[in-house]
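can u do me a favor
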């Protein structure tokens, strides 16, 4: 099992990683949500996220990942233990919630439970018309033939396939493409849409003037 730990307390992160390693779990550590926003999609079995991160909060990180369609199980590990914060975290898209301090055995058991649940329910293949995409292998196909996509082209196509009947505004697309702290230029969306159209067919991405873009399968 491979885990991403997003925790700003270095000593706690070190102890947590050591405990997970003794259970055969590989953990990678990042102290900021800004760094984790792009890294979290790279094949992890689960994420452990602290809420009280410096800069962008853990809640905002979770919301961003869920908007992007990242389905990886997320466990909140935080010192904030009120029921209101637990409800807010779960509503943001987290799958489980633990309050510090927590015994390593319970943390490991919760991670294994999340992984089992995901293995039984996670659907990695998305399809609409002649288009198909596998979120786990990062492969895409048009009429059965593989399409070579850049990272952001893949993210854009995934966003369309997750909601094939919805018109996505430029701001919604930017949320699904870039890290939380990135300076955003709405003009980059038009450029990226143009590149994707050249690979899947111009008519498959319709411009809804004044609203954004919509997939036409």
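np, heres the sequence
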């Amino acid at each position: 099992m491979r885990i991403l730990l997003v925790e700003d307390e270095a000593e706690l992160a070190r102890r947590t990683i050591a405990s997970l390693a003794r259970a055969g779990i590989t953990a990678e550590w990042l102290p900021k949500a800004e760094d984790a926003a792009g890294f979290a999609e790279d094949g992890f079995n689960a994420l452990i996220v602290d809420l009280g991160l410096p800069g962008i909060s853990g809640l905002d990180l979770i919301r961003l990942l869920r908007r992007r369609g990242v389905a990886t199980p997320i466990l909140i590990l935080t010192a904030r233990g009120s029921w209101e914060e637990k409800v807010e975290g779960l509503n943001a898209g987290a799958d489980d919630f633990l309050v510090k301090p927590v015994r390593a055995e319970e943390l490991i058991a919760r991670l294994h439970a999340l992984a089992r649940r995901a293995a039984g329910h996670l659907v990695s293949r998305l399809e609409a018309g002649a288009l198909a995409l596998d979120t786990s292998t990062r492969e895409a196909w048009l009429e059965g033939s593989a399409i070579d996509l850049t990272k952001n082209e893949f993210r854009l196509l995934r966003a369309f396939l997750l909601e094939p009947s919805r018109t996505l505004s430029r701001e919604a697309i930017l949320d699904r493409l870039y890290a939380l702290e990135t300076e955003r230029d709405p003009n980059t969306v038009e450029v990226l849409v143009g590149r994707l159209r050249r690979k899947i067919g111009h008519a498959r991405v319709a411009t809804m003037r004044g609203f954004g873009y919509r997939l036409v399968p």
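The two ends are 36 Å apart (CA to CA). hope that helps!!
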